[in-house]
Amino acid sequence: MATEIQEIDLKTDEMIINMGPQHPATHGVLRLLLTLDGETVKHVEPVLGHLHRAQEWQGQNRTWFQYQALIDRVDYLSGMFTSWAMARSCEQIDGTVVPPRAEYLRVMVSEMNRITSHLLWLGTYLIDLGAMFGFPFYPFREREKLFDLFEEIAGQRMMFNYIRIGGVLRDPKPEWFDKLKRFLDEFPDRIDEYETIVTQNPIFLKRTKGVGILTQAVAKDYGVTGPCIRSSGIPLDLRRTKPYSVYPELKFDVITFDKEGDTWDRYMARILEMRQSIEIIRQCIDKLPSGDIMGKKQMAGMRIKAGEGFAAVESPRGILGCYVISGGGEKALRFRWRNPSFCNLSVLHELLKGCPLSDIMAIFGSIDVILPDVDR
Amino acid sequence: MTDEKPSEAEKPEDKKAEAAKPEAAKPEVAKADGAKPADAAKPADAAKPAAPAAAAAPKPAAKAPEPVIPATAGKFEQFLKEHGIPAQRLPLSLEVETIVLSGDVLQAALRLLRNSSEVKLDLLLTISGVDSNDTYDSVYHLWSYSNLDELVIKVLIKKSDVAEGDLPAVPSIANFWSAANWHERETYDLMGIRYANHPYLRRILNPWDWEGYPLRRDYKQLVDCLNDKNPHSMR
Amino acid sequence: MFSNGDEIFKISRLTIVWLAGIFTIVWMVCWALGIALPMLLTQQLGDKAALTNEILRAATPVIAILVFIPINAMFMVLIERRALALWTVRKGPNRVGPDGNFQTAADAVKLLLKEDITPTGADAVMHTFAPILFFAPSVFGAVPLLAAVTNNHPLFRVLNLPTGIFFVLAAGALPVVALVMAGWASNNKYSLVGGLRSAAQAISYEIPLVLSLITVCLMAGTLDLVKITEQQAGGILNWNLLGGGALTGLNNALAGGGAKALATSYFMGPISYVCAGLLVISLIISFWLYLTGACAEINRIPFDLPEAESELVSGYNTEYSGMKFAIFFLAEFTNLFIVSSITTVMFLGGGDNPIPPYILNNIPGIPQMVAAIRDSYFCSTLHIINPETFFATLWVIAKVYGLVIFAVLIRGTLPRFRIDQLMAFGWKRLIPLSLIVFIIVVFAREFVICHG
Question: Which of A66, A314, C113, C279 could lock A62 by a disulfide, CB 3.0 to 4.6 Å apart?
């Protein structure tokens, strides 16, 4: 009997679906070539490059001064970090000493930027999970407040160009710190509010618990960094493991989970990171020394000494590295970005294998990919 | 499959490079006269510093034949030499040890560096392709999950060694790190370094039918619809 | 407490303006066609007008529905957008017209003027036919509800069916075919997956939905919507939501029957009281089962998998544009309205006042007001309105739009299920629960005197 049943077994065909580049939930222009068996994913091939703007080429063809303004666009949600990575690598080559006040300001603004980035992720992740209309706009409310603060110091809301080679652009007024403190006082309550709506929501738990499990071996194999790998239990946080700037003087916890991370852990890691960022900013405000904020003269014909350097910062998405080769002229010989989104995205096909169609967005959203950061 | 495609893609590029050669000769003559700045239309020269003084100080990798070896030999260099792998240390660049390996020992060296109990360089940060003056470099940044070690490995391929119509070849390390897969694809795409035995070597950021390797110095875009001087321009 | 009190005030104003507009227009159409014109014709022509009058009377409800559905859908889209905006700290559409009142009218014009596209390789006939088949049931499915929600007004009595709820459910099951058709005919894989999902979902969730309604019909002993409504008259304790007549004895006792009324209804003593309690709990569970099933049936969040934006672009209506898309859109909101109406009729007493008459009639002023309306010129001479229908309609509007707003609130709160979780939830939770409730009701109603 058994053989008979096998013989008349229904034949099913695999279906190839082209998800993106114009798809409401691929965060821009990612294209996923999905091979589906029913609604189960058999194979995924991400097709990149729809947003390729030749950022590295532009780095070689623009002066240092011009290129500083461009790189905020590499990862438009965390422009402070891209500026910082470039500034650090150039300062390494050049031997520029950054004044301590500038370092503290850098930490402060970039932690603020981390919060805005995580807030946007939180909102869009809920959209990915299907809460199209309700919750996602709550994080945006707080994000706008932070952007108002950014606007005061940088003149821009998203493309800051605030951290420059040698220091920071502008010294905030004393009132700015008061506003920031006021924000920091109310923000933990807001995070509690998000958690009330989301963290214990049964549908949210069902959609995220045990979905998209990233094991430590796979994470190490693919060079995953940032909250993704920390939620898998590897405490790789550059701010602590390879401390740079003034992070050694600041107290904060590295958020790790003891087990293999699923999408819920990645969500929780980001929520907890935002709380840590609040503490870091508070300490920065308290410890902020007075003094100069710029260690190198900013001018159009700025030059960097010959040499090569690699510097990395811990961006909201992971290790953001910048490899610069300078010939001593007005322009770089080679700019090379190590983008966390690019590396984190490469693990996607491992995570998606065998999951249902609905989970694609739950998993893809949870690794927090910014497509301009992937495609450069 | 992967071995055929690059060579096919190379043919038109090669003709183009030949076409570009006479042009390339002109600015050099001009530079010898010492008067004219570099021709702006040529990206390779635009990247170079215009002043002769700056041109006299090229980056260290360009002087690869005779590197100044520091007094204390590097930790990783020694380690590799102990295991019989010839490694050559470049002058200190920002206190990070930089060693030059030849392509055929790359696999063995990385296996050692990644798996041995003494050094655990198990975090591959990035693979970069660099077009130096007379070499193509494939640069590997290795970090460790467990300690603070950093290592930069460079594989240099002399441009003179690369045959006409061929791509500089470096063994792929995608069998060690899956992370290397996309980085190598990107370097192949933008710099035209062929990674031998790569599982899926095809363009990643540019379209699959793109011609040429955009980050090379002699790259010239064939069809540039926004450039008026281009005969193929759509304007 | 209300930091956005201004917005709340604006939304309330918008709602009142729109509702007054909608129902005045619809009611005037009904009155002109069904009452005023026949009266006029009879005056002028005498007996010769009898046939014309019959035709006019029969046509009135259908025309009323056809007038009502588009305006109502426009209002519902607007109130949904405004309400969602209120709950998501945004402004919502507030530019076109005062308070953004005409936003959806502008949208409708835009949709009608858009190019109608049939994709390459699509089955053109089925592609065109699908939205029609999707929309038609919501028109004729609404018909039997009319008599029930207007307190059996003579104008709509013609359309009442003895098996009303059966007809409504049958009509409500049809759109699934249209969705599968739309998905299949679009020549788009997303559409196909959306259509198949909608079929799977509808099959799974129709069972608890129908079982919960059967429970109510069992308590009522009839399928006639008007009778079910009439049984529930007399205050909140009579509603099917609270036991389907299990509390009627209590109601009678409070109304003045005393212990005797209790003894009549709960004739078995303590067993009857326990059973009455069971019935109340069961019917409340049935109510939630119905709401859940209905949410899935009309593809609202959290069950909007057939058109999950973040997964399937827009599911079955990905390839639709212009007029066809407008019909889909219209039908979706009409379905929401119909589902709310069914809930109102089956569980919330239709047009019944939640305050029982023995309290209401003792409030000074209320009986006089009703009498004044009845004696007024509009009512007695022109027959524009009678107080029973007027108050019933007010209550129905309040209940139905309350449920609509509740659905909007759910949409603004919850993420979406995954398809396997949806199936598991339907088959492993809802269906067993509805069967258990059904069996409890079958036995418990033997020990209590209920509606049926």
Answer: A66
CATH topology of domain B75-196: Beta Polymerase; domain 2 (3.30.460)
Q: What is the pLDDT of residue A115?
A: 92
Q: Could you tell me the two tokens for C94?
A: 């507030």
Tell me, yes or no, whether A7 lies in a domain.
no
Q: A43 is in which domain, residue-wise? A: 15-375
Q: Is the Cβ of B138 closer than 8 Å to some Cβ of chain A?
A: no
- ipTM for the whole complex: 0.85
Residue A10 lies in a domain: no
CA–CA min distance A23, chain C (Å): 6
Closest approach of A110 to chain B, Cα-based (Å):
22
Pick the residue from chain A with its C-alpha nearest to C318: A23
Which of A319, A327, A343 is opposite residue B49, by nearest beta carbon? A327
Asked if the C-beta of B59 comes within 8 angstroms of chain A's C-beta atoms, the answer is yes
Contacts of B126 in chain A (CB under 8 A): 321, 323, 336, 338
pLDDT at residue B232 is higher than 70:
no
Determine whether the interchain pair B178/A222 forms a contact, defined as Cβ–Cβ distance below 8 Å: yes
> A357 contacts in C (CB within 8 Å)?
193, 311-312, 419
**pTM of the entire structure?**
0.82
- Contact B50/A327, CB-based, under 8 Å? no
Interface of A with B (CB under 8 A): 48-49, 52, 54, 56-57, 60-61, 92-93, 220-223, 234, 236, 241-242, 306-310, 312, 319, 321, 323, 325-331, 333-334, 336, 338, 342-343, 346-347, 350, 375-376
Among the partner-chain residues C87, C304, C420, the one whose CB lies closest to the CB of A134 is C87
Chain A residues inside the 8 Å CB shell of C89 = 137-138, 141
Nearest to B43 among A61, A234, A326 (CB): A61
pLDDT at B40 over 60: no
The count of domains in chain A is: 1
Confidence of residue A193 (pLDDT cuts 50, 70, 90): confident
Cα–Cα distance for residue pair A141/A116, rounded to 1 Å? 10
Rounded Cα–Cα distance for residues B83 and A314 (Å)? 35
Query: Are A186 and A107 a contacting pair, CB within 8 Å?
Result: no
Interface test with C, best of A133, A204, A355 (most C CBs within 10 A): A133
Q: What is the mean pLDDT of residues C409-430?
A: 86
Return the pLDDT at C362. Answer: 83
Distance between CA atoms of A119 and C447, rounded to whole angstroms?
Answer: 58
Q: In this predicted structure, which of A204-208, B157-161, C156-160 has the lowest mean pLDDT?
A: C156-160
Mean pLDDT of A151-180: 88
Q: Give yes or no for residue C309 having a pLDDT over 50.
A: yes
- Of the candidates B53, B25, B19, B57, the one whose C-alpha atom is nearest the C-alpha of residue B39 is B25
* C436: confidence class by pLDDT, cuts 50, 70, 90: very high
Quote the longest CA-to-CA distance of chain A: 87
Q: Is the pLDDT of residue C181 over 70?
A: yes
C42 exposed, middle or buried (CB, 10 Å; 0-12, 13-18, 19+)?
middle
Residue C309 is nearest to which of A24, A126, A207, comparing CB atoms? A24
Confidence of residue B226 (pLDDT cuts 50, 70, 90): low
Q: Which pLDDT value is given to residue A239?
A: 87
Torsion angle in degrees (nearest 10) through CA of A349, A355, A360, A364: -50
Task: Judge whether residue B71 has pLDDT over 60.
Answer: no
Flag whether A187 is in a domain.
yes
Burial A286-306 (b: 16+ CB within 10 A, else e): eebeeeebbbbeeeeebbbeb
Residues of A in contact with B40 (CB under 8 A): none
CATH number at residue A337: 1.10.645.10
Structure-token match 């196909």, residue found: C192
Q: Is B163 on the interface with A (CB under 8 A)?
A: no
Residue A5 lies in a domain: no
* Average pLDDT of every residue of chain B: 68
Subunits with 3+ Cβ pairs within 8 Å of B are A
HSE at residue A130, side-chain half, CA atoms within 13 A, is: 30
